[in-house]
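Sanity check

After download, print the first record. It should look like this:
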Amino acid sequence: MSHHPPKISIIIPSYNYGHFLSRTVQSVIAQNYPEMEIIVIDDGSVDETALILEPYLNRINYIHQPNLGLSEARNTGIKASTGDYVLFLDADDLLDTNTLTSQQSYLQYNGHVDISVCKSYFFTNDAEIGSPYSLPEWRLFEENLDSHLCHFNIAPPHAYLMRRTVLDNVGFFDLNLFACEDYDFWFRCMMSGHAFKANPGTCVFYRKHGNSMSSNLDRQWRHDAIMHHRVFHALMQGSTFSGNQLYLAWMANIAGAMFTVTRLSHDIEAARNLMVLIEKSLFHIQANPGSVVDAQEMLGQYFRLRILLSLLSSDFRKIAASNDIVEKVYFVFPEIHEMANQYQNQSQVELVLDEMINRLSA
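Expected structure tokens:
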């Protein structure tokens, strides 16, 4: 009796990305994994998407819908999918040839893991793909992905492969978000108790270009702020974290919120709302003190350095001038006060951070 491998559903939402879409679909068809379904959701495109996809109609499930947005397009793909595993692939990005095989094998042999996250490399044109490891990398942390998800997102959507049971539990993408919708989804997965692990055995490719959603930086930063607030409320309401891990999660969110303050210094109201969140977080830690155990001291030091980097920013200090937030940070995290005497400028901190990221990465 033949044994069929589990099916993987690849969900590709697209809006006016026909000029990228053929290459993206080809990167899926070229996979060395034998059992998959490719679902392309045309979210009301007015370019030549339908024409470009004609040669692939015998290989894909093509769904056309009115323009409802990225989250709704992904949700449509979820409803249409039948795979045991699911991967979201944006219409301008690419998989490596063994992405699916490596990711599925990792989950198969690590039954306690629900979501596998692989490496990802930035590129701007297809010619660069021939030598992926010379490309800039979105660094993948080796351990404690749950803590890092309380800081910022940790990878692009197609770097994650999840079990179907995760979707059955967590549900759909949030239609109220117009950026960070993937980060919100993965954070909810983590807060629902699903285990993330890094799989350094394969990679994906994340295209950078002027029309990508991530290129709208102001919208991205405002949604980063929304996510810091969501993380804060999730931690306040109780979570899968406990003890030392909860302390690290609070530290991670404070570090992320402080960095977003430096990016939103042109928007005084948004920045000050984040400052209120930071103060509330510091008060909570002060009322519920914790510590970093020796085994995770490097991770604790990483988040301390992230906090210090923002404290040394003139943009942060401009927003913080009306209160005593800097002194409160030093009071709650005395180690950061000591570090401030050691590192006098952002460049010094960035050098140390780069070395630490190398040590923490997969």
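If your output differs, re-run the checksum step. Summary of this record's structure: The first helix runs from residue 18 to 29.
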